[in-house]
Specification:
Length: 132
């Protein structure tokens, strides 16, 4: 099984995005701009993990012998684990509180991103096509 260049590109983007999520989710609460929209932070969590899941799905797309189901399962599982880890770290080591509703938004964003991944492949077929 040979890993191709596109796998590494999507892996780099996925890791960079995960670090960006970590940065913003562990930021001190007094540095976060106040938004007057109720539950706006849940939309942000959803968006962060939606993008993370799409990036993971595209990375797995370029690895050999993975079905859509396996890719969706892996991307959702990894976003669930990462979201859980972020919430635990927030409550234990950072001046933040871990929130079950944030975790639910993380999971929903991850699952939605993984479910939309096959549609992205159809829409942008040549760009995201696997090497043979």
């Amino acid at each position: 099984m040979r890993t191709n260049r596109k796998t590494y590109i999507w892996m780099f983007l996925s890791i960079a995005w995960a670090l960006l999520i970590f940065h913003f989710c562990t930021m001190s609460p007094d540095k976060i701009p106040g938004i007057k929209i109720p539950h706006a932070d849940k939309a942000v969590h959803f968006g962060f993990f939606f993008v993370q899941s799409v990036l993971l799905s595209l990375m797995f797309n370029f690895q050999a012998k993975k079905s859509y189901f396996q890719i969706i399962l892996l991307a959702t599982l990894l976003t669930f684990i990462y979201g859980s880890l972020i919430e635990i770290l927030q409550s234990r080591f950072f001046n933040r509180t871990g929130d079950l509703y944030d975790l639910i938004a993380d999971i929903l964003g991850g699952f939605t991103g993984a479910m939309i991944y096959p549609t992205l492949l159809r829409m942008y077929g040549k760009t995201f096509k696997k090497y043979k």
